[in-house]
Amino acid sequence: MDDVNNPASENWLKKNRQSPWAGKKQGVEVELTEEQKKYAEEYAVKKAEKEKGSGDNKGEVVAEKSTFHGKEEKDYQGRSWIAPPKDAKAKNDQCYMPKRWIDTWSGHTKGVSAIRFFLKQGHLLLSAGMDSKVKIWDVHNSGKCMRTYMGHGKAVRDISFSNDGTKFLCAGYDKNIKYWDTETGQVISTFSTGKVPYVVEQNPDDDKQNILLAGMHDKKIVQWDMNSGKITQEYDQHLGAVNTITFVDDNRRFYISEPHTHSMPAISLHPNSNWLAAQSLDNKILIYSTRERFQLNKKKMFAGHIVAGYAYQVNFSPDGQYVMSGDGEGKCWFWNWKTYKVSRTLKCHEGVCIGVEWHPLEQSKVATCGWDGLIKYCCSISYNSVCGFLKTFQENCGVQMKD
Known about the structure:
Elements: H1 10-15, H2 34-52, E1 65-68, E2 100-106, E3 112-117, E4 124-129, E5 133-138, E6 145-150, E7 156-161, E8 167-172, E9 177-181, E10 187-191, E11 197-202, E12 211-216, E13 221-225, E14 230-235, E15 244-248, E16 253-257, E17 266-269, E18 275-280, E19 284-289, E20 296-303, E21 314-316, E22 322-326, E23 331-336, E24 342-347, E25 353-358, E26 366-370, E27 374-379, H3 383-397
Antiparallel strand pairs: 1-6, 2-27, 3-4, 4-5, 5-6, 7-8, 8-9, 9-10, 11-12, 12-13, 13-14, 15-16, 17-18, 18-19, 19-20, 21-22, 22-23, 23-24, 25-26, 26-27
């Protein structure tokens, strides 16, 4: 069929022009045949694809593989290596600030951009690297890397566990979002819009874990149904790239941050769910109410650290008593929630300390990550306390212990 018979072409419009104003497409009121309607729809689709670009909706194609570093993937009882220890539970409700770092985990060849504890138990720790790799660490026992996941062509920006920890999401600068099986290291699904994802979150409700939300570089939040792989919703009324997505109000709403009026690149929900802590690039942590309107609490603010220019994570202790954040000098800062005063600073990294996570069960332990490629594990028990315990044990039991 030539252009004269194509109702979407200029030649067809000229042939069927009825008045001086009929040259515009919206000015033509002619009943189209079924064949012409079909042709017009196909023409419109092809034109849209041409304008958008054939490869614009795809991320980089990268070979996916995973390496297990542990001794055995199953124990003698047939339990998976990701299974939480049976005795994992909080000893008490009060948290204590760590005094020094007690362990260092290395394995990433470039900076570590994010860390996440295995939800509720915290016996495993997931890390996202600028070396394009994701690693998972044994926190409860050896402190060693258990598995490495390789599926991105560029640095990994964000990571997020599913509720039961058996799967996780990771977002990379290669424009891909990967959904992994934590235990086997297999990629379950890949999602992409052709734009860089800055943050990935699953709906926290157990019956809505198939809903994926991704904050994108192109000012959109994209929602996928992970079962079908289809985009089900787009939120595009944002002023800039979406850096965070935080669910509130019993997961009926979510809060996002955008880079305007002092960008807030990181947000964390207080354990009581009534407040949000937002890392602001004017070197303050701002507090917002999570009620109907996200209202700024002008009296409550935490300051002293220098964070301008970086997306430092902000977080809470599980009991809500402390607020914490990293800074550009490798320090981890702790503030008292009630008094707003600095309680302690702890030197953990050389250069940027970008991520901080309080252990969900071990009330005195905190993990940090930095652009020096290291993960530090900090504790409230000092070296002197350990030595004192060993000395007492030696005196009481009559055991000779080497220095």
